[in-house]
């Protein structure tokens, strides 16, 4: 049985005597506090915090972190206050214990709101002191190792939570060993049958003669390296089972298609030796094309550095070979925890992964501050926990790390928030490309900005990083309020004109009374509410002037559409009006003004609220490009569709979709096209009608009817 003396012996390898004494004192304090308490397994409760401290001692955690690990359940389970811990062990330890205690009852499979709120608490605790999450990860790892004592339903809940949250965080912090242990234990607990079957299949495929082949492989590589006077340690390993399962599941591959089930790790003493070893390996085994990655020149965002290459072994089985220095190996295995190993040894050349992890945690703070609620916060952070990454370059050679699937919009926000907010297009490897293009490692990305540009709501459909999504939503939220106030001002002014007055002539008493009626704080709040359709301008005007006879009201002027009103004036998809069409507006709650064609049948559905209708007119200078649909009837002859498409291919009109909706001797197709006016529409229809096989062209005013 592991004891405090065993822990003290481990700590003596890197901590001074007085710090070990403090850790031992914390153990005896915890032992007394937990006296009489038992774990589900029947063991004394104090064995758990001792095991957590043991895990952290293997990571060379500092004195305060170890002390907090031993005391991490004291506040939660024994009633001892934070003040009492401060008095005994100092504010630093008490703060860590309090931070871990707040994370004790995270339940990630509960309702969404609670799950999001708990994860937000974890992120904020991490931002306060990164050691909080290290203690929590060690706590979770020991709980996973002793999971058998728990009932089946709790096993599955804890295992799912571990796979969804704790293992990805360990990975994001570069803690490979902890992540692998958490994933393997959670996989076996959550999918016990799949784990057994996969392990059996791996043993059947690779198990025969494995020990003999492994030894032979090690000897071959060692002798080749010795011939080149390169010193290195070599270990052959099998990829951990959950990683194999993930690749098979996500990429829909069989076990035989997974290229790195067997792996070789070569650890050397010098940086340049890594590249010399790579040359030896490629001379010895045939490398598989496209499977080489240089994470030494371009480290991962969690600080990981290594050379990766996949080769065909002597028996034809693909092997991934990782080549790194001893320092890189320590960082690769322990991630941010390697920071404390360097700190206690006094080494000045400390790994950069601590700074990288701190930068990531700080980015969580930025996301949290701009997120509207915990659910949005979690949604925006999820992509940052995704393990795969791409590395792209700015035009001046700076490396930007992004999650797999990231786009130029994510890149723009990764460089700077203001660049993201003002980007209009991009060049990838000097060629213009859409902002929705998925980036690949090694590309050079240049963002083109414009002073008056602003984020587009459509970006949310392809931006994936937390920083990009949060900033886009935050900007649009602020911009929507500005737009709503402007539209609300126009709508209320128009309604007040019917009463032969305007907003500037309203008295303080009138405004105060209306704000009080609707429980609003300021005039801007009222205008925003009118602009968003929550209140109706005409009804607010009636409240302001309740005694005026309706027969004396003047008919208000038409509301002019200029094409630059922002996101709270939209065009109905059912009738797709374009400049020149007769139009009417309907004020819809939270959507603002929706513009319909005057003959649109759907406006009949709104006749029960006539006060929400607005007379609309197009502005003289409007230049609004809008989508419309044309229905083309044509003789179904060879090349007919190509002829129709080419009839407008040499114009400025953009075809966004072409869909054949009926086949026969006379077929019909729907052509979605962008036009700016009825004149442009007439030109398009004339060109299509000129095609010999076309019989009829009509504008589709009601989609789906």
Characterization of the model:
By secondary structure, the chain is α+β, with helices and mostly antiparallel strands. A hairpin with a 5-residue loop joins strand 5 (307-312) and strand 6. The longest helix has 32 residues, at 466-497. The protein is globular, with a radius of gyration of 33 Å. The termini are far apart. Mean pLDDT is 81; it is low at 105-111 and 347-351.
Shape: globular
Low-confidence stretches: 105-111, 347-351
Mean pLDDT rating = 81
| CATH fold-level label of the largest domain | Hypothetical protein af1432
Structural class: alpha+beta
**Architecture per CATH nomenclature, i.e. the level-2 architecture of the largest domain:** Orthogonal Bundle
Q: Which band does the percent of strand residues land in?
A: 15-25%
Considering the protein shown, what is the CATH homologous superfamily of the largest domain? Hypothetical protein af1432
Helix content: 40-55%
Quick structural summary:
The protein has 705 residues and is an alpha+beta fold. The radius of gyration is 33 Å and the shape is globular.
């Amino acid at each position: 049985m592991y004891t405090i003396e065993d822990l003290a012996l481990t700590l003596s390898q890197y901590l001074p005597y007085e710090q070990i004494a403090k850790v031992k004192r914390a153990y005896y304090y915890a032992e007394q506090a937990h006296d009489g308490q038992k774990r589900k397994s029947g063991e004394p409760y104090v064995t758990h915090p001792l095991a957590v401290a043991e895990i952290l001692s293997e990571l060379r955690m500092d004195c305060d972190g170890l002390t907090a690990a031993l005391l991490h359940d004291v506040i939660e389970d024994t009633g001892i206050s934070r003040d009492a811990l401060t008095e005994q062990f100092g504010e630093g330890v008490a703060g860590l214990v309090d931070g871990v205690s707040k994370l004790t009852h995270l339940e990630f499979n509960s309702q969404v709101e609670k799950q999001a709120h708990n994860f937000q608490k974890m992120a904020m605790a991490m931002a306060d002191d990164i050691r909080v999450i290290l203690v929590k990860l060690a706590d979770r790892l020991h709980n996973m190792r002793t999971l058998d004592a728990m009932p089946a339903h709790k096993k599955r809940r804890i295992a799912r939570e571990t796979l969804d949250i704790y293992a990805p965080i360990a990975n994001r912090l570069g803690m490979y060993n902890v992540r692998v242990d958490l994933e393997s234990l959670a996989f076996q607990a959550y999918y016990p049958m799949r784990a057994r079957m996969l392990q059996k299949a791996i043993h059947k495929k690779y198990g025969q003669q494995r020990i003999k082949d492994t030894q032979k492989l090690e000897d071959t590589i060692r002798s080749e390296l010795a011939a080149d006077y390169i010193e290195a340690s070599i270990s052959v390993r099998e990829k951990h089972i959950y990683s194999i399962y993930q690749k098979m599941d996500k990429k829909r591959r069989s076990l035989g298609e997974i290229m790195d089930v067997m792996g070789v790790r070569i650890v050397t003493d010098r940086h340049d030796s890594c590249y010399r070893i790579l040359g030896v390996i490629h001379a010895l085994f045939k490398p598989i094309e496209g499977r080489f990655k240089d994470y030494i020149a371009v480290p991962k965002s969690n600080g990981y550095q290594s050379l990766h290459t996949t080769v065909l072994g002597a028996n034809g089985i693909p092997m991934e070979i990782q080549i790194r220095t001893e320092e890189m190996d320590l960082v690769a295995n322990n991630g941010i925890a390697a920071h404390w190993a360097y700190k206690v040894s006094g080494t000045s050349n400390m790994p950069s992964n601590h700074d990288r992890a701190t930068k990531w945690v700080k980015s969580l703070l930025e996301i949290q501050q701009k997120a509207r609620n915990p659910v949005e916060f979690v949604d925006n952070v999820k992509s940052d926990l995704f393990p795969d990454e791409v590395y792209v370059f700015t035009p001046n050679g700076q490396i930007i790390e992004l999650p797999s699937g990231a786009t130029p919009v994510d890149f723009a926000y990764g460089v700077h928030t203001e660049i993201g907010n003002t980007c209009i297009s991009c060049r990838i490897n000097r060629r213009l490309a859409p902002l929705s293009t998925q980036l690949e490692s090694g590309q050079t990305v240049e963002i083109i900005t414009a002073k008056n540009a602003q984020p587009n709501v459509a970006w949310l459909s392809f931006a994936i990083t937390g920083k990009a999504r949060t900033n886009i939503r935050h900007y649009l939220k602020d911009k929507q309020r500005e737009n709503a106030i402007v539209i609300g001002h126009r709508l209320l002014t128009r309604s007040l004109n019917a009463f032969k007055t305007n907003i500037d002539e309203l008295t303080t008493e009138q405004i105060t009374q209306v704000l009080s009626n609707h429980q609003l704080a300021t005039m801007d709040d009222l205008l925003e509410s009118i602009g968003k359709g929550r209140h109706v301008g005409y009804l607010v005007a009636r409240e302001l002037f309740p005694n005026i006879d309706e027969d004396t009201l003047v008919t208000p002027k038409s509301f002019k559409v200029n094409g630059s009103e922002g996101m709270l004036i939209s065009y109905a998809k059912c009738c797709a009006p374009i400049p020149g069409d007769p139009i009417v507006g309907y004020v819809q709650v939270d959507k603002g003004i929706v513009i319909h064609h005057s003959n649109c049948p759907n406006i009949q559905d709104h006749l029960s609220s006539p006060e929400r209708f607005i007379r609309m007119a197009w502005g003289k200078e409007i230049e609004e490009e809008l989508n419309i649909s044309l229905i083309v009837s044509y003789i179904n002859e060879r090349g007919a569709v190509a002829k129709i498409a080419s009839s407008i291919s040499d114009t400025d009109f953009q075809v966004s979709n072409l869909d054949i909706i009926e086949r026969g001797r006379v077929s019909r197709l729907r052509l979605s096209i962008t036009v700016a006016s009825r004149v442009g529409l007439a030109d398009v229809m004339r060109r299509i009608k000129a095609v010999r096989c076309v019989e009829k062209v009509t504008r589709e005013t009601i989609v789906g009817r």
